[in-house]
Design a protein that fits this description.
The structure holds 2 protein chains of 2 kinds. Chain A is α/β, with parallel strands linked by helices. Chain A is built from 9 helices and 11 strands. Chain A is globular, with a radius of gyration of 18 Å. The model of chain B has no long low-confidence stretch (mean pLDDT 89). The chains are: A alpha/beta, B mainly alpha.
């Protein structure tokens, strides 16, 4: 029997997101969940989250995501060592299908917990990233380890080599690519590169997971005047272009296991936001069923 | 393992993004910082919109314990 990749939700403890997601769970439409393990490092995880994680782990449909390891920091800090210890504890509690982190660096000595920033594609950065992925692999309880492509790029050349950079980082650990389509859309929009060209430039043979989300436009002042800049803020509806990119990418990712819809908590405050969020989820699910690679 | 050259570049970048009043000021700060040639080339090619966005992001970073 042929099956399509699973479709699921990234869950967070925030109440507005939980309320928006509940009808999707109740209707049996959520085939997998992704949990940001950093959220449990300080304790205080709500009981309902624990129960949900246990339920999906038992079904072999639980995926881990990390945000604060900072795999491309040039210095390995005590903070990262503690992060690995905590990750090992979290990943050992229940079986995860795989664990992903973000391309980029979020820490330098004395400062931490930022949004990932890009790194130039140079041999030293590749060596550092490979080393950090090996360390993550050591604490992952046998789960495969992967990286997510980044939204922010410093220049057009970075955008064009991002796929090759990721492939080189992932190669020694046979890591997987978490292909975030809104991140890719941000790069395509901000640097005027066709999105299908960027999809083709990614190591698609490594893609096991796809993220789909919305974001926002900001206006940035430049010497040439104000110009728009797309940001991966996870606070809006999924743009129609991202649905199209999803349909384009799906049949090109033969190892794809799961597609997650992401949204930040506290961003579903207006009337209609939750309904639109659920409509977007259903649309993603329909595209995956129609276009996703079949697994026999 | 560490990469001192990469670490030095990242520290300088963060410092410039935190302290500069504009993307142009950040670029100027970085251009005056002695860094590896690859770092200087990357900095010179930076898009001002990316720099401004990075400045906003870095200013939300917190002091580590």
């Amino acid at each position: 029997m042929k099956t399509h990749p699973k479709v699921g939700l990234s869950i967070l403890p925030e109440g507005d997101l939980r309320v928006a997601q509940l009808p999707l769970f109740a209707d049996g439409l959520v085939e997998a969940i992704e949990w940001t393990i950093d959220a449990e490092f300080e304790g205080g995880v709500p009981d309902w989250v624990d129960a949900l994680l246990d339920h999906y782990a038992a079904a072999g449909a639980l995926y881990a995501h990390g945000v604060e390891f900072s795999p491309l920091s040039g210095v390995f800090e005590a903070r990262q060592s503690r992060w690995l210890e905590r990750a090992q504890g979290a990943l050992g509690k229940r079986p995860y299908r795989h664990v992903s982190e973000h391309f980029g660096f979020t820490t330098v000595p004395g400062l931490a917990r930022g949004t990932p920033l890009p790194v130039p594609f140079v041999a030293g950065a590749v060596a550092i990233g490979r080393d950090r992925l090996r360390l993550l692999q050591e604490v992952a309880s046998g789960a495969p380890v992967g990286l997510e492509n980044l939204a922010l790029a410093m220049n057009r050349d970075d955008v064009l080599v991002h796929g090759e950079f990721l492939d080189q980082l992932l190669e020694p650990t046979d890591g997987f690519l978490l292909l975030d389509l809104h991140n890719l859309y941000c790069q395509a929009q901000n640097f005027d590169v066709p999105a299908d060209e960027l999809v083709r430039a990614m190591p698609l043979h490594r893609v096991q997971e796809i993220h789909v989300s919305g974001g926002s436009w900001s206006t940035v002042n430049t010497p040439a005047g104000p110009r728009p800049f797309r940001r991966d803020s996870h606070d809006g509806a999924i743009p129609s272009d991202v649905f199209a990119i999803l349909a384009f990418a799906l049949p090109r990712c033969p190892r794809l296991e799961v597609v997650f819809v992401e949204r930040l908590g506290h961003t579903l405050q207006q009337a209609g936001d939750a309904a639109r969020y659920r409509e977007d989820y259903q649309r993603v699910r329909a595209i995956v069923i129609a276009e996703g690679p079949s697994h026999g | 393992m560490d990469d001192p050259e990469l670490a030095e570049f990242q520290a300088a970048l963060i410092e410039a993004l935190r302290r500069a009043s504009s993307p142009e000021a950040a670029l100027s700060l970085l251009e005056r910082t002695p860094l590896a040639e690859w770092a200087q080339q990357w900095i010179a090619q930076s898009d001002p919109r990316s720099l401004e966005t990075a400045m906003l992001l870095v200013r939300r970073w917190t002091q580590d314990e």
